[in-house]
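Cross-check.
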Amino acid sequence: MPINLADKGVKYIIQRIAGKDDVRHHLASLGFVPGEEVIVVSEVNGNYVIALKDTRIGVGRELAKMIIVA
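Predicted model, tokenized:
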């Protein structure tokens, strides 16, 4: 499921990154790669704060739709 549909506070594993090459490369440069654990910390007006490794990263709704987790 896309991470924008994920429950807050639950650990998920990134399964894949969807989208065009430039989108996948951008998300990979931020650390969003298959196998990484992520947690949705909060969502406000379609903007998501996601805990990844030892940091928190903000992404918009369109980018969040590209991060597929399970």
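The first strand starts at residue 11 and ends at 17. The domain at 3-69 is CATH 2.30.30.90 (SH3 type barrels.). Passed to J.P. for a second look.
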